[in-house]
Structure formats: C-alpha cells, structure tokens
Specification:
By secondary structure, this protein is α/β, with parallel strands linked by helices. The chain is about 25% helix and about 20% strand.
Length: about 500
C-alpha cells in the first residue's frame, strides 16, 4: 500500500526485512525484486505521491510539486542547475523517456580502470533485455517525430552525421508533449506506475512525504529515522523510524552521499561524495521563419551520437532535442530586459537542441552543509570545455542545415550565429568561465562509486557499503564514471542485478 504524509498524524514505528530509501529507478527496481522474493519491504520517499489524474500539464505546477527545490537545485556557485525529480517514481516521473543501454566502451573502462569484472555487456545483457521488455522500450516511427526531433535527423543527415531514433519507455503515448510534468495519460512507463506499482501489489509499503535523516546501527538491526513532511510547506509534522536488518539507500547521487555522511557511514576511503559527474548540458536555439511549436508532440525521440567517443578517449558529446516551454525558456534564454523579452517573443519560432558532454576531466562533489542538506561543487576541465564548444558548434550546424535563419547559444552575453560560416569565430570570441554559459544537468552520477578496492570506492560491485554490512547503495551514485548517455536503463539494470544479490542474503 501507499501511505501519504497527509494521512499520517502520529509518529510511525515499523519493522521490515528491508527498508528502501528513495523510490526512483534504483529504489523502485530494488523494491520490486525484493518484494517478489517474499521480503517485507518498506519504501520511504521524501516527495509526494501523484497518480496520472493528478498531473496538471503545467510547468509551474510540476516544478513546484515534482522537482527537487522547485527545479532550482544548483551548485554553490550557481554555475550548474541540476534538475531532479522529488516524488514517488523519482526522476523517471519527469524525464523525457529516452532509454539507452550503457555504451560498451564505458563498461570496458569500468573493468580495466575500476576493477569491475562482472559488469560487462555480456553480464548485463539479460538485465538490459528484461528492463527493455518490462518498460516496452522501443523507437518511434518517423511519422511520430515532432519538428525539433526531425531537425536533428534531417540536419544531421545533410551533414553526414550519424543520427537515429532513440528508445522510449512508453506504451500508448498520446504525444501530449508533457513528459517533464508527469504523464497524465499513464502512458509513460515510469517507475511509479511499473516497479513501485508491482512492489506494492506484492506487499510492499510506500511512505511518501517521508524524508530519511539518519541510518543508525544497533547490533544486527538498522534503524532509519526521519520526518513525515507537510507537503505544501516541506516542514516536519511528525517522525518515523523503520527497523530492518537490511537498508538500501537510493536517494540519487545528490542525496545518498549526504545521508551516509550524516549517518557516519561510507566515509573511510575519503571518496564519499566525490567524483560527481553531471553529463554537463547546454543548448543551442534555432530561430526559424515559420512556427516550430517545440513544446508540442514527443519531447525527445531522436539523437545524434556521431561525436561520442569519436576520438577513442571516452569523451565527447551527444545531441538531443529538448522541449522548450515558456517557463524553461524564460530561465534559460540569454539577455536581460528588453533584449530578453525580444527573444522570448520569438518562442514559437524556436527549436532547441541540447549538447550533453561525457566528462573525462571534470568532476564535482557533494557534502552535507551546516543544515545537513546537500552542497554541490563542480570544476570543469579543459578537455570537457573544448568538447562543449565543439558540441555547440555541431548542434548549430545541424540547425542551419535544417533551415534555421539564426542560431543562438545560452551564453549570458548573447551569442547569435547568422550563418554556419561564423560559428567557429563567434565561439572563439565567447566567454566560457563559470556563469558565462548556462549549464544544466539531469543526470548526476558517481558520488558513492562502485569498486572492489575499499580504499578507492564507497561500495562494492554488489552495492554494499564498505565496512557497513547490510547497508547498500543502489542508484546513480554508484556509477564509477560518466555514462555519456541518459542513465535510467543503466541504473535499472544494475539495480535489478544487485537487488537479486540482496535477496539471496
């Protein structure tokens, strides 16, 4: 059953075989596998529970109710805005459905550089296949691409860049264009309507509006303590305590290391909260002579993967479409005052593409601040800066090839290309320091990284925290490096694998 914070008036004291903290890809997959194995599972989730009937197809409503810090989570210097879900289903509830396997060159790196020898493409194949079948992951037919996705396919094709339709986890998609606000049709196979629903059907209990504050160890038992929150104010209304011999932390690469730090766990190696990667993202905006209505239709169904690991250095970038509604546009578009208003007035005539850089020399960290909440830092390396510059140039060329009149970047001082011939020169004149270019992340990873050597990692390849038997981390934080692709399939596959091993304990 799902018990919402609004229905809880007294403190909660429960026991279980497993307490799972977080209900996104990691927590949801774990809860499903363990419940099916006959374990008594209690899931605690900081965010609220919403069904398809609750989603309001509104940016303002979604940012307020479904996202961490109302979509305002950022690094301490405000250089990178981090978009994360905070609701039952986690970020899967608000992502744009792109579903891709881990590239083999990434898995090879994990084996050679991180010593993870049982996470090869062959090892993970049955889990990838299971996830893809369960979530109905498939490519859209050409007639279902909206204009901004066709821009990628058409523009890349004219330039000779490799492009393709990407996998999507949907069934019966109505092309409403509101994937980022929760699917009101229930067509998106997000974790809340799949893994969590199946876990509940198998006997699991989900407490929503329940923020875990600490994990305590009492002999063979662990106790997860925290607060039941008033959803509208986020203020505590009462407390909860869940006792279980096994605890699974699945709060994301931002929240999980902070919870472990507050609990005095996982810090022996000095790597807890370190090695944060963002899949660093910026965008170009094509301005066209005819209306593009880039907020209509499927938000993300095509990609250009020509430039990922193209030099064999495990770096590079990826280009995808991005839906641009008025709120997101107002936050991201460059300029101030009249200049910004002038750009916003062209919104119907714009189409955007994002550039996502797979980090090779950039990383950040997450630590607990004085209030016990996440504080993020991030430093960009020169090679990744260069890949971002190359990515913006390639995306701009794609838009010109698809018929754009002008193309602009998200530089604070507007950088507008008037033809393909000026791209390199104009980017050379642009500024690239912190806050000179709007940067985003929807794919933070790596702050509790896996490894068999307890001196250089936080958890084992099974996800068990070194030095803390019975406490596991199963989410994006365990990834040993940036993936270079959207991470939900990777997280789900590895989480299912590790949950099977937890069930065998």
């Amino acid at each position: 059953m799902i018990v919402q914070g609004k229905d809880i008036s007294q403190s909660v004291r429960e026991s279980a075989d497993v307490c799972v903290i977080g209900s996104g890809c990691g927590g949801g997959a774990t809860a499903k596998v363990l419940s099916a194995a006959g374990k008594k599972v209690i899931v605690v989730e900081e965010g609220g529970y919403f069904g398809p009937q609750d989603f309001q197809q509104s940016e303002e409503w979604a940012f307020t109710n479904l996202y961490q810090q109302r979509a305002g989570l950022a690094t301490d210097d405000l250089g990178v805005t981090v978009l994360q879900g905070r609701c039952v289903g986690g970020s899967s509830t608000v992502n744009w459905t792109t579903s891709l396997r881990t590239p083999e060159f990434v898995l090879d790196f994990w084996k050679t550089e991180r010593g993870l020898r049982d996470l090869s493409a062959k090892d993970l194949e049955p889990y990838f296949a299971r996830v893809e079948g369960y979530l109905n992951i498939h490519q859209e037919t050409n007639d279902r691409h909206n204009r901004q996705n066709r821009i990628i396919l058409e523009g890349a094709g004219k330039l000779g860049y490799r492009s393709a339709s990407n996998g999507r986890n949907v069934d019966g998609c109505l092309q409403l264009g509101v994937c980022g606000f929760g699917c009101p049709a229930g067509a998106k196979k997000s974790v809340d309507v799949t893994y969590i629903a199946d876990a509940v059907a198998a006997g699991a209990t989900v407490l929503s509006d329940a923020r875990a504050e600490r994990i305590e160890i009492h002999g063979g038992l662990k106790r997860v303590t925290g607060n039941i929150l008033e959803r509208s104010t986020r203020k505590p209304k009462t407390t909860f305590a869940i006792e279980a011999p096994t605890v699974v932390v699945a709060g994301s690469a931002v929240q999980s290391p902070v919870l472990l730090e507050r609990s005095g766990l996982g810090g022996a190696s000095g790597h807890l909260g370190k090695h944060l990667t963002f899949h660093l993202t910026s965008a170009v905006i094509g301005i066209y002579d005819s209306p593009q209505h880039s907020w209509k239709g499927i938000p993300q169904s095509a990609m250009c993967d020509e430039f990922l690991n193209a030099n064999g250095d495990s770096g590079g970038f990826w280009i995808e479409a991005v839906p641009v509604g008025p709120v997101l546009a107002a936050l991201a578009f460059p300029g101030f005052g009249r200049e910004h208003r002038s750009i916003m007035q062209k919104l119907s005539y714009t189409a955007a593409s994002i550039v996502l850089v797979k980090e090779i020399d950039s990383e950040g960290s997450v630590r607990s601040n004085d209030n016990g909440r996440p504080e993020l830092t991030y430093e960009r390396g020169p090679r990744d800066r260069e890949y971002m510059k190359q990515g913006l140039a390639a995306a701009a060329r794609i838009h010109f090839a698809a018929g754009a009149r002008n193309v602009m970047t998200l530089h604070t001082r507007p950088t507008v290309f008037t033809s393909p011939d000026v791209i390199e020169n104009d980017l050379g004149k642009a500024e690239w320091d912190t806050n000179d270019l709007s940067l985003y992340s929807a794919h933070p990873l790596g702050t509790c990284r896996m490894g068999e050597d307890a001196r250089t990692s936080v958890v084992s390849s099974r996800g068990e925290v070194h030095g803390a038997p019975g406490i596991f981390v199963v989410d994006g934080s365990v990834m040993p490096s940036s993936l270079g692709v959207n991470p939900q399939v990777t997280i789900l596959a590895i989480s299912e694998r590790n949950a099977e091993r937890i069930a065998e304990r």
